[in-house]
Design brief:
Blueprint: H1 2-24, E1 42-44, H2 51-62, E2 67-70, H3 85-92, E3 97-100, H4 107-116, E4 125-130, H5 145-151, H6 154-162, H7 168-180, H8 190-197, H9 201-206, H10 208-219, H11 246-259, H12 270-277, H13 293-307, E5 311-316, H14 331-343, E6 348-350, H15 372-385
Helix pairs in contact: 1-10, 4-6, 4-13, 6-8, 7-8, 8-10, 11-15, 13-14
Length: 394
Amino acid sequence: MKQVVLHLITLIVAGGISYFCITTFPENEITPDSLCLSKTSGLYLNYDKGDQAEADIALNLSIKNNILILGSSELTGKDTSKLKPFHFIPKHTYSNVLGMGHAGNQNFAIFTQLLHYSQYLKDSKIIVVVSPGWFTNGYEKGTSIPSFLEYANERFLLNIYRNDSLNYTYKQALSDYISRNYNDISSPSWVMKAFYYDRNEWSKIKNAPLSFINNLLLNSRKEITPVLPDNCNHTPKKDSLPSIKWDKLTAKSINDHTNQSTNNKWGINNDYYTNYTKGKKAFQKIPEMNNNQELQDFRLLCQLLHEYKADPLFIIQPLNPYAYENLTDLTPIIDSIESISNRFNIPTFNMFISDTAHYEKGMLTDVMHLGDYGWLRINQKIINHYNIPYNESP
């Protein structure tokens, strides 16, 4: 009994010290003056830019004509022709497009970010570029811990944990995720410990003393939620819009790609084919449908967007069928993605092709990353889907 009492006293003392440290050094404020977007269009790789990146995303979601596009590695890389949506659409329309993500930003990371922004989701235009590669070759185990921590910082998690209005299912999903990956987290934060302790009823009972101290510490933290100003005008200022010549742009993009893919017949640019593909086809390791965590995370993301009445569009990007042995085996997963989306009334733009007969070379630059022609198709879909006005060349 004495040992238990001593243990509790030690925890209380440690908690008091931590409490003093946390309350002595307050966190940075996000002021309304900083919230007139520093970036109206373009791409954030993550939240390394700190408060401003978070504020820009929040305000982007709250402005009627703006669009947020989320994805992974397909958003990064060269864009010499400026055809990615966060370059092309702001140039040719009065809508801004802000991107967030790079490699590793899969469904659960995207879900957690949008859960943090839940108050801004209603009617917000959100595009998720869904990569088939997220659901195969080991990535189907779900978002990795390094990627999760990159996109779900401590303030995000703290605000989610404290938000009593959120659906319990979403908080439980975070507890389950952190619990599954807890041993891979070095020095978990107080809020991560809170989610871990709350993972089930037995855990709450077993960790009651630790949870009590931990919650005292959490309650000492300031919740920083951007208070968005209503006096910012972020409509692109243009006297006139340049016309979009879809046919001409399409012909140029295909021709350019043909000239860059002269050492193979697979529609892969020369450098990638020489350095990586080398004439060898890859094989997709496809898991059982009931053992695909990424698919479950996708369903959770759909539920969130539907519940908060967002205005989303999912784009299922293609893979190069010339470069894979068994893309037809991936069709059931693609069908499931569409089926789940339909269940939550979320439209999809499915660009996945499993056979070479229907694949258009130039859609991708390599085996999985979109080329200029692919981005043109996506831009046209976005503009038509959201009825964005533009000048079309006759």
